[in-house]
Design a protein that fits this description.
8 helices, alpha/beta, about 220 residues, seven-stranded mixed sheet, Rossmann fold
Length: about 220
Amino acid sequence: MERYEHILVVLPHPDDEGIIAGTLAAYIAQGARITYVCLTLGEMGRNMGTPPFANRVSLPSIRKQELIDACQNIGIQDLRMWGLHDKTVEFEDQERLDERLLATISELKPELIMTFYPGYSVHPDHDATGAAVIRTVARIAADTRPIVQCIALSKGCKEMIGPPDITHDVSRYMPQKQAAIRAHRSQFHHLVGDSFDKPDKLARFTKERLWTYKLS
């Protein structure tokens, strides 16, 4: 893996970080500082636990604590919750959102930003978040802008954007990844079902794939 001093992660929902939890744990083990900007609290999520233990009123505070716990399990040092409304990131004032992202990048000066690949990430909030990051980084001079690596999830994405240029084997960091995903108790069954209890299914979580976004 490449070495970075500071990495900025920008994702919209608590539990999104689980997708790359092994990679983040590996970077932290190398000495990188991680700042995670989570745009919403996922308060519009349909999952209330299995069996249900949350409701529409309690879910935001539950998911907030789950996110805090997940970040502690990964080792993330700097968690920032922006409190945007879940499922409406695409309707946020773009200029205001981009300026906030630019101010954060200017403050932190990360060498790497990790986010979703706009248009190939299944959920409208995922796509809108990735699009905001790309718009913002494109405003930065080419010789000083950070690298952007993206998560792509949609069916057929490899045919559309090509194969991922980064694949991390995170087998060594599966304890951190499993602990981070399990921390999201209200969403856990929806996220992984029984995969963590079956070695043949667990293996698919040991590879984390990313695409480097090519800015013109």
